[in-house]
Structures are given as C-alpha cells and as structure tokens.
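lol ok so funny story. i was supposed to be doing the assay writeup but got distracted and ended up predicting the structure for this chain instead. priorities right. anyway since i did it might as well share w the group, maybe its usefull for someone
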Amino acid sequence: FGGAKPYLKKAINMRIQFGGFQRPGVLFALFFAGALSLFGQTAAEMETLLTQKSISWASAARFTVEAAGAAVPASPREAFEFAANKGWLPEGAEENGIARLDGVALLLMGAFDVSGGIFYSLFKNPHYAYRELVYKNIIQGKVDPAMTVSGDYFFFMLGKLLSSIEEAQEEASTQAAGRKEKERGEAKQSEMRRQALARRVEITILEGAPQ
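and the output, tada:
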C-alpha cells in the first residue's frame, strides 16, 4: 500500500470522512469520480471506466498494478502484459477480453500480495482468490464468480482492499508500539529489581563485615 499513488490515498481519506463505502452503484461511482476530479489524465480514465458496465482485463490491470505500486504502466496493454507475466491473470485472459469477477479477485490478490488460506496458497487460482475476497468482505452483494465486473464495482473492490490494507498496517503499527512500551516497562522493572538485589547484597556484606 505504501506504493499506492496519492490520489488513491486521498480517495480513502475521503471515504473515511464521508462515513465509509456503501454498496456499489451510481452513488459510489459519482463520489469516486468526484473525489478524483483534480488528478488529470488518470482521473479522466477512471471516470470513463466508472461508466462501463463491463471492464477489460487490460483496464483492470492498468489500475490494479499502479495502485499496488508494482509498476507505473504507460498503457493498459503494458499493464496487462506485466500482470500476465507475474501470473496475476487467469489462464486464457486476453487484453481486450471481458474481465470476470473471480479473475479480478486473482489480480487483486496477486498484485497486493494478499495472503490467503491453505487452498489459495497452494493453487492461487481464480476460484480460491474469489473465496478469499468474499471471506475478507472485499467482494460484497449478490455476486457470482463468473459475472462480469463493472467499472464502479471494480473501484469499489479496489477501494475496499486499499482501505483494509491501510487499517491492517495501522493496527500492526499500534500493536508494535504497544509491544515496545511493554518491553520498556519490563526492562525498567528488571533494572529496579537488579538494583534492589544489589543493594540487599551490599547491606548484607556490610552487616557481616568485622567491626
């Protein structure tokens, strides 16, 4: 997530400000497009994609690869080739072919290096990637793994995933800070016990010394 572009971080911050994502649809599409209206050509591409009822593999790869910080593709074709070479696309996926939901799940899982269960770890295919993102609540609503993916639903998934990664990083940071604080407290107590023991030994030696 650290490699994600600033406009995606801005979108997440606005999501939090406006009370979180709701189910995907026109309202979400308008919000996301408006949130990114100041980011030039990329925002224009996103606004175009948001209106599409089905997106291509190249378009899905274009935004996923860049959002994950894996690369900065010059074109959807370049992004498609990059993702295909990484093994993030299902077998048989074609640049201008219509993306399926389970295949997009595989793309997101791969590009963001999302860990999954034992079956996903073993097979890393669209079937188990889809199940993982349903379990993680990234994929929501009345959906089917074979369904095509609209532009607004794609950005809904992407936004949910970015948000979940950010929240996980914040939680890990908080836990790490808590562990360090605990370690400092334990070290302080250990030093106090050491000093107390040294003092008792010193007193014992003095009391036992010949007068």
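The first helix runs from residue 6 to 17. Confidence is low (pLDDT under 50) at residues 12-39.
back to the writeup now i swear
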